[in-house]
Write a structure and sequence with these properties.
MetI-like fold, single chain, mainly alpha, flat, two-stranded antiparallel ribbon
Length: 274
Amino acid sequence: MAATIGTETGAVLVNPAAKSRTAAGMRSILLPLGLAFFVLAVWQIYVTVADIPSVILPSPISIAYYIVDRHDILLMHAIPTTVESAVGFLLALALGVSIAILITYSPVAREALYPNLVFFQLIPKIALAPLFIIWLGIGPQSRIAFSIFIAFFPVVIATTAGLLSVDKSILRLCRSLTATEWQIFTSVRFPAALPHIFSGMKIAITLSIIGVIIGEFITAQAGLGYLIIFATARADTEVSMAAIVVLCICGLLLYGMVAVAEAIANRFYSADSR
């Protein structure tokens, strides 16, 4: 119990472990926020004291004012970027987990695929972006495909590591109890691999956003990447910085959704194990 009431004094006795977890949770929130506010304050003071032109470096306050005043335009461009990033991430997740399962259960596939996956990962991804435009056109399909291309590799590596990390003695015990491979996968391998899978997902969600933005840099009529390039060409640094801030917010929302999914999965499998 997190707290108990004394029978004689009526005082509330707080569990030290619960208090420690609360303090750790508050610290994990306050420290990043404090650092962010400190950086923004230094930025604002530097721009004001040094009288830096907004075309070179706008102040955080002016960027915030622009975001509030022109939130409709920013939202209009944020929606396609966020949707395409989410779609690319989900498809990269499905592809990455499927390849990882194939590599785990098939030594032939592991020997054939793994070296080629590493080879393709070494190719500079931005060099292939124009080819995706040629192959798939200027629509969202090329940006989503490019997002999948650069985001699925971390999922493959992390999932494979997780599926292969199960203790061999546990697998032998399951087989001795006549458990099928599907039962072993759903009850042993997959739950054990979840921390690795979500680690790969957290990397993949950031890469999927980068892939979409690169595609919007090259050819797009909407999206935050398009807005950044358009504003930069007009030397409108304030708009570019505002679009970058909104892009960061969208990225944090997508990353937070992955973190929430991880918490739900951990709670589900921990409850299931009991």
